[in-house]
Amino acid sequence: MKVLVDTSTLYSAIAFDGKFSKLMELLIERHTMVISDYIIMELRMNIEEKVSSDEEQMVLKRMDDLFTYCEIKNREDYVQNMPEALRMVSKKDSPIIACAMLSDIDALLTSDKVLWAIDSKYVKVLSPADAMKELLG
Amino acid sequence: MAQMVSVQIRFPSEELARIDRYVDNGDFPSRAEFIRDAVRKAEMIRALNDIRKVMEKEGITEEDLLKGGKKVRQRIFSEMFGDME
């Protein structure tokens, strides 16, 4: 499966050594992890604000290493879905949904409960608990 | 595409037989592709673990990142999709 991973799940995976990190490992080992330029920017800016300057470069470098092996979608790939996405969710979440609507993406993995309510005819949304079951299958 | 360099690797015969089964099943086009895939996945997991260690050392929690993410996302939307506001 090709799974777009939202930042909410990535935050849990990098800051919480529990079921989320196992979920991420499962995704890496058995499926294709997809992220977008929007997700990368959010993650980078947030990490730059939180991590001390001593560790910042190392963390950003390892983040780039992680993303090297992910499939990355850019604005031009999903911008055509933005008007429809804007009708479904708030502005700030719309680029995530627009990207998840791409025909080659099988599902969106997110911990954001607001996004779980999206109609599955547009986007298949997996909570971490759903993903554990589905990705193991 | 990155330059490819040849290396010779020795494997225990049982491990090689397992790799060959994946190749015979059509999961991988060759032994080399199986090994490249395994290296890529191991590197992703190592990168994830290295980031996690720093977060733990710096006392940065999931909640800190989630809170910060909401504010940052608003800013990035304006930067990338300002024409749609």
Quick structural summary:
Helices cover 60% and strands 12% of the residues of chain A.
Helix/strand layout:
The complex is a heterodimer of chains A (137) and B (85).
Chain A: E1 2-5, H1 7-15, H2 19-30, E2 32-36, H3 37-50, H4 53-68, E3 71-73, H5 75-78, H6 82-88, H7 94-100, E4 107-109, H8 113-116, E5 125-126, H9 128-136
Chain B: H1 13-24, H2 31-58, H3 62-81
Please tell me the total number of domains of chain B: 1
**Which parts of chain B are unreliable, with pLDDT below 50 for 5 consecutive residues or more?**
none
Broad CATH class of chain A:
Alpha Beta
What is the helix/strand order of chain A? EHHEHHEHHHEHEH
User: Which outline of chain B best applies?
Assistant: elongated
Helix content of chain B: over 70%
Output the CATH topology of chain A. Rossmann fold
- Distance between the first and last residues' Cα of chain A: 11 Å
* Approximate shape of chain A: globular
Question: How many strands in all of chain B?
Answer: 0
User: Beta-sheet strand percentage of chain A?
Assistant: 5-15%
Shape-level CATH architecture of chain A: 3-Layer(aba) Sandwich
The radius of gyration over CA of chain A amounts to 15 Å
Q: Would you report the number of β strands of chain A?
A: 5
Radius of gyration of chain B: 21 Å
- Put simply, the count of helices of chain B is 3
- Mean model confidence by pLDDT of chain A: 90
Helix content, binned percent of chain A? 55-70%
Count of structural domains of chain A: 1
CATH superfamily of chain A: 5'-nuclease
